[in-house]
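Protein modeling request. Please complete all fields; requests missing the sequence field cannot be processed.
Requester role: graduate student
Desired output: 3D structure, token encoding
Chains: 1
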Amino acid sequence: MPRRQKLNAILEMIESSANLEEIGAVMTQLRNLLEVDHVFYRWVDRSDGMSGCSTLPRAWQDRYSEMGYHRVDPVVIGCYKAVHPVDWRDLDWSSRLAAAYRRDALAFGLGNQGFSVPVRGPSGQYAVFSITKTCDDVSWDKFTRQYCRDLILVAHYVNRRALDFEVSFRALPEQPLSMRETEALSLLAEGHSRARAAETLEISEHTLRVYIEGARGKLQAQNTTHAVARAISMGLIAG
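Delivered output (239 residues):
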């Protein structure tokens, strides 16, 4: 069967999957079809590790959760505000923690190249669909050019179907952001430092921090970057 027909068959299998485990099995077929190292889909709104489905080894999933890597993972951080697919080479791996995470991931066989598609749900859900592959830059560029559109399509199929099974997403609080909380997040979204944001609002940095923490709590965000991203995705502030 030609590769295009196999890909269409995979999309149909995703649509007819009865649970996350079946989606994970389809991911294995996609991995084999594309000849990549791993395919995985996970929610980044959560803080309990690799929630979702994937071809990743259980040892790495346990390690990721144990080490709390969601807090330093450049893919998680980089996709919060991203709209378009992200090549992992374009992410910031310069920090000591990010570099340590990368070394650990490579040791577990994740592959030296990665490509992620950020996807969203109707209630503020945020997820990332990723593939990894071990190859040189020239081969990787050729691969992503060839399969970029297909991977975006698969990502949205997986996200749409997975959300049908995910009943444990907590709805965002109905309590709205205050005007000051909205202003604080908006200024940070525009790239202002905290000092500059506080100056613009004519408040102290301590007071600004109170507003940011208040917004984080209402948005169930892991950190300030996450709060900004969730506010943008919900249309509460301009991106």
